[in-house]
Amino acid sequence: MLPSTLPIGRRSLRWTLLIGAAALLGGCASFSADGGMGAIQSAAYADIGKEVVKIGDDQAALTAKARVDQLLRKPLTADAAVQIALLNNRGLQAAFNELGMAEAQMVAASLPPNPSFGVSKLSGRFEIEIERQIAGSLLALATLPARAEIAQDRFQAAQLRAAEAVLRLAADTRRQYYRTVAANAQVTFYQEAKASADAASELFKRLGESGGVNKLDQAREYAFEAELTVQLAQARQQQRQERERLVRQLGLWGDDLKFQLGSLPPLPKLQSVKAVEAEALRKRIDLRVARAELDVLAKSLGLTQATRFVNDIDLLGRRTYDRGRSIDDHGHVERETSRSKTLELEIEIPIYDFGQSKVALAEQTYMQAANKLAEKAVNIRSEAREAYTAYRANYDITRQYQNNVLPLRKIIQDESLLQYSGMLNDVTDLITDARNRILSNVAAINARRDFWIAHTDFKHALIGGGSGGGGAMVTAAAAGGDAGGGH
């Protein structure tokens, strides 16, 4: 540091500081009334038509709980499950807390730097010196408008990330709802098939006792019934797992775990979407987040270049009071008092680093973000096309099961039963046809589940915020647990 000391008048210094402080404080940011949640709520309603609240006090918590209780009184639909998750998931509330922290950082960045005050006292037998000083960073004051603008942009990027967390939780909850409902449907079907197999086994047992059925046919029927028992146990285990994953998404516990679920919806009318890529590029919130972060980096790079040769400038005002005593030739003590005011300007001179490393780091960070943004734009186009392809393919597969496969399997089993009753075929054909019909029905349930998951993936491939491919891996913001696919 190379200090330079200049005398300054007390009144001039006071007015200079007051005018500078008034100008700076006039541009300071303040906390918003809604904590930045207005933009999040508008985005959630526009994109998914759902209500989002930040629970910051007891009244908000009671209101959200009353709404959740109201939704839980009826069997849940996918929309109701999403609404409960958005109101009740604590991981999402943690994401809103991050938004609040971002706002606090924005407000702090818009404030002038705090000055430092110091008082020192030096005393001896005959002398005393008292020094009072105030110091502040001129560089921080000079760059305050630019830093405040960057902080505002960072807060807006944090708002987009919070909106992305909302959309991600909604997509993951919807996917998990369809998995859970499909698991319920499989259990119901296996139970019905098991009941029919039990009745057939009882009939075969009686026929075997009377000699009407040989032991080989009995064994085949018993093996078929045993296989159904195992498959029903596996389906029930899958049902419990999927339900617990949904519970974590919804944030439920205690008596709320008794909620009922609806059934898989029927196939809707096929959506025909034109210009899928353009719509995804226009609406994807993760792309908007990346663009906002790139803008922040661009402004940060400009600030780095502007201050590359100066690391810091400190302004220090000092007031010194000296008091001493001396003894004259006659032995009398004389007091000497003096006061002085100084203004010091300290500039850190970069002898070894003229800012090249700071600028190079900022430039490489910016180019990294720009390349990632370009990569994301390419990937979003591909993801949109892939999601639409999966949506259309799963629609055709599900419709094929409903319109052709299942009706034909029913006809085959009914005819096989008639032929067996007429002694035209043996029990082996009957069991084979029954097993094939069971497999087809389970595959049809899974196809309908996969269609609705593909439907969710397609929707969120256009607006963002959801993990693609139906993986439904839950992030820390969503905090819904790991959601795997059904078997």
Automatic annotation (TrEMBL):
- Record's protein name: Outer membrane protein TolC
Query: Which residues, by range, are in coiled-coil regions?
Result: none
GO function term, MF aspect, one = efflux transmembrane transporter activity
Task: Report the family membership.
Answer: Belongs to the outer membrane factor (OMF) (TC 1.B.17) family.
Q: Which PANTHER family match?
A: BLR4935 PROTEIN, OUTER MEMBRANE CATION EFFLUX PROTEIN
Annotated InterPro entries? MdtP/NodT-like, OMP_efflux
